[in-house]
Design goal:
The chain has 133 residues and is α+β, with helices and mostly antiparallel strands. It has 3 helices and 5 strands, in the order αααβββββ. The strands form 2 sheets. The protein has a 3-stranded mixed sheet, with no helix packed on it. Strands 3-4 form a two-stranded antiparallel ribbon. Strand 3 (107-114) and strand 4 form a beta hairpin.
């Protein structure tokens, strides 16, 4: 039991450090602003979802903890989304010389116009590995 608890805490700390550290120096102010903004919106959305689930229960007074739980989960997912879409980190793994680093992935969106179908298409790209020669 104690080993599982310690392993869980170590994994949570590792994921937190992996998602919050920028390996390419200090992130720009706009990146931090976007990440915090996404985290706040995630918290608001999580609060709304927690309240909606609370209202679906038979005894809402017994389940008031759904609201802060939803808010907390929303903040975490919002911050992860803001960090992933910020463009600071380009790929999950990077190999540069003899060094290998793990990062949070960046989701890049590309828009193109298809003349044959006469519509605009949006594709997403996630970089998994970057190798520099």
């Amino acid at each position: 039991m104690k080993t599982a608890r310690t392993l869980t805490i170590a994994c949570m700390i590792a994921v937190f450090l992996l998602c919050t550290t920028a390996t390419r120096g200090v992130a720009a102010d706009s990146t931090m602003k976007t990440t915090v903004n996404d985290a706040l919106y995630g918290g608001l959305l999580g609060t709304l979802v927690g309240t909606a689930v609370l209202l679906l229960t038979d005894k809402p007074g017994d389940h008031l903890n759904y609201i802060p739980t939803g808010a907390g989960i929303g903040v975490l997912f919002g911050a992860a989304y803001g960090l992933a879409t910020s463009g600071v980190v380009q790929s999950v793994g990077e190999i540069e010389g003899s060094k290998f680093t793990l990062n949070a992935p960046t989701i890049r969106k590309f828009e193109s116009y298809d003349k044959v179908a006469n519509k605009k298409e949006t594709t997403a790209h996630v970089g998994l590995l970057s190798v520099r020669f």
